[in-house]
Every structure is written in C-alpha cells, then in structure tokens.
Design brief:
Its EC number is 1.13.11.27. One of its GO terms (molecular function) is 4-hydroxyphenylpyruvate dioxygenase activity. Belongs to the 4HPPD family. This protein is of the alpha+beta class. The protein has two domains: 178 residues, 2,3-Dihydroxybiphenyl 1,2-Dioxygenase, domain 1 (Roll), CATH 3.10.180; 113 residues, 2,3-Dihydroxybiphenyl 1,2-Dioxygenase, domain 1 (Roll), CATH 3.10.180.10. The protein has 14 helices and 14 strands. The strands form two sheets. The protein has a nine-stranded mixed beta sheet. Strands 11-12-13-10-14 form a five-stranded mixed beta sheet. The chain is globular and about 65 Å long. It starts with a helix and ends with a helix.
C-alpha cells in the first residue's frame, strides 16, 4: 500500500514538473464530466475572430524527401516551395495541398549559407519565426513532427495581443510580410506553437491559384510543372489536431483562457478506454466550430501503460499526436493509400479484433451502412 502511495505521489510530482516545463502554468478550475454527463453548449466566447485551419507545419531535417513521402502517401501534390531556388537561404519549405488541407514541410539550411552572402538569416526566410537552433533541437528531440498549427484569423495582430493579454506565452510577435500578410505565434504545448495568419491589402489576380505568394504567404513560388506527383486521393481538409499532454486541467484552462474557445466534447477512460489502457480527453472549438483542438492526458492504474504516456515518453514531452483528415470518400482514400504503403507511403495500423466490427453498428449508428461496415472489416 505504501509503495502504491509513493508511486502515485511520484507520478503527481512528475506531472506537475512536466506541465511547468511545457510552459502551461494556468490555474486549473477544470472538472472532467465525461461523455455521458457532458452537455454541449456554444457560448460564442471567442476572444478574437477565428476562421479556420490555415496549414500545419512539420519540422524535420530533410524537407525534400519528407514532402515527397507525404505527397506520395497521401495523394497531396507539392504545389509551392521556398528554398534556395527562390532565394531562401535560411530554410527549405515545401507546401502540399489537397482541397483546403495544407501541409508545410520545413528543414533548416546551414546558417553559413546566408552568412557567406553577407545576409542575415531572417532577411531571406519565408517563415519569419523560423529559428535554426530551435528547429535542430526540435528534430533532435522529437524527430519529424508538427511545429505549428496555423489558424487563419481576421487580424493576426489583434489575435496575438489578445492572447498574450489573457495569459498566452508569446513565441513570435506580429510580423507584416510585404504589407499583405501578418504572421504571429503563441505557445500551445510542448514545442508546438499556435500560429495566427491574416491578410490585408490582398493582391487581385485572375490566376491566383497559381500564385502561392498571393493565397498562401509571400516568398513562396509555384512548383514547376511535372515536378510533383499528380495525385488526388480525396483528402479535403483538416478536421481536428490532437495534442497529448501530461496533465489535462492546466492545458484546458490555458488554451480556453487566451482563445475563449468552448468545450465541444469530453471523454474519460470510462468512455474510450479499456481495462488495458485509457485516456481522458477534452475537445475545444472556436465559435463556428471549424477549428477543433482535442487535448489528451494519460490515465494510470491500468494493466498496460496508457498509450498517451507511451507517446509522451517517445516524443520526450507534449506534442501533436495525430491529425484527423476529412475525405470526400474515405473508402477510396484508404484504398489509394494502401496501394502506396508498400512503396514509400504510410503503414497502416494492425487490423482491430473481430469484436470491434461487431460493435461498430451500435457505435456508428446510421453513419455507415451494413455494406460499408463489411468493407471496413
């Protein structure tokens, strides 16, 4: 019994230490109710106007090959670039797009490249907040992972100032890019930032779709024809971006505090866990519920270590665990992705046990037909 108490105390101390290290120090007044007792309301409480997800940026050490793998595996063409060929001597960034979904893969160049040309790294970077040492430390600690969840907002300057005034830890103050776009950042969790992007004085263009410096960010140029895989697996937008944390309460209070986002859903280990492993989760959303940010924490005392705790150990701290992508036809998307998985695409998780599919009808209701459930199986 004493050993159990000591173990619980050690876990509590470790959790508090890790939460502080993540920069999340908000006082927690949060009480988890769980799915059955949760009543969804939308108080329209955003502190600033949030439109939708703009893009997700991944930091890595080899943006060229990472972008090609994502493009090949997800059916997302590489549509724009910012690298040495465009005058960027600071970092290589490649933009993938499918529908409204944009993934940006970024890796650092040696700082000596810009120095040799008597230029400061900041003068050539297309992502103004990019930092060599931070990117390399990120890659060394986490590997390829999500650095920034970018939201398009009505005014990135107001979003930043409002966020900081309500407790957000600042990461990058508002920077105006060519008097057309504004970028700012605040700390989200772990080494992940929440990036705000807004546009002013947009440049009218009849062929704006072919000008990423218009619809995305300045200093990005369109990829040359036939330089990317011409694929489309039907993925259309980001549905939600999930963060894994050591402790849920402070993170929820922190994010709600500076954004004004409301609780969209709650889940406890009783709702989504098993006797083997489990988690607690809260989903936060903006007024229009176009931005969904679930947050997970591990639970203890199960037979196996919580999958969330395993992630935290492997990732060396909090971070984005997964991204949920919306498809216009999930069955076609999965068929196409499976074709690529053996040749440079993404591996699929092991097939669930038969009981999963037997219970799927009761869980999915009328969302899936009997034929679709059979196809899933």
């Amino acid at each position: 019994m004493e050993k159990d108490v000591e173990k619980a105390r050690a876990l509590t101390e470790a959790t508090a230490t890790a939460a502080a290290a993540d920069g999340i120090t908000a006082e927690s007044e949060f009480t988890l109710k769980g799915f059955r007792n949760f009543v969804r309301t939308n108080p329209k409480s955003d502190r600033f106007k949030v439109k939708w997800f703009h893009h997700v940026e991944f930091w890595c050490t080899d943006a060229t090959n990472a972008a090609k793998r994502f493009s090949w595996g997800l059916g997302m063409p590489i549509v724009a670039k910012s690298d040495l060929s465009t005058g960027n001597m600071t970092h290589a960034s490649y933009l993938l797009r499918s529908g409204q979904l944009c993934f940006l893969l970024t890796a650092p160049y040696s700082p000596y490249i810009a120095a040799a040309a008597n230029l400061s790294p900041e003068s050539t970077a297309s992502i103004p907040s990019f930092d060599h040492s931070a990117c390399r430390a990120f890659a060394g600690r986490h590997g390829l992972g999500v650095r920034a969840i970018a939201l398009e907002v009505e005014d990135a300057e107001i979003a930043f100032r409002t966020s900081v005034a309500h407790g957000a830890k600042h990461s990058c103050p508002p920077i105006v890019l060519e008097n057309r776009a504004v970028v700012s950042e605040v700390h989200l969790y772990g080494d992940v930032v929440l990036r705000y992007i807004s546009y002013k004085n947009p440049v009218p263009s009849d062929d704006g779709e072919n000008k990423p410096d218009v619809w995305f960010l300045p200093k990005f140029e369109a990829m040359e024809e036939n330089s990317s895989y011409s694929l489309d697996f039907g993925i259309r937008k980001l549905d939600h971006a999930v963060g894994n944390l050591t402790e849920l309460g402070p993170a929820v209070s922190y994010l709600k505090g500076f954004t004004g986002f409301h609780e969209f859903a709650e889940f406890t280990a009783e709702d989504v866990g098993t006797s083997e492993s489990g988690l607690n989760s809260v989903v936060l959303a903006n007024n229009e519920e176009t931005v969904l940010l679930p947050l997970n924490e591990p639970v203890y005392g199960t037979k196996r270590k919580s999958q969330i705790q395993t992630y935290l150990e492997h990732n060396e701290g909090a971070g984005v665990q997964h991204l949920a992508l919306m498809s216009e036809d999930i069955f076609r998307t999965l068929r196409e992705m499976r074709k690529q998985s053996g040749g440079g695409g993404f591996e699929f998780m092991p097939t669930p046990p038969p009981t999963y599919y037997k219970n799927l009808k009761s869980r999915a209701g009328d969302v899936l037909t009997d034929e679709q459930i059979k196809e899933c199986e």
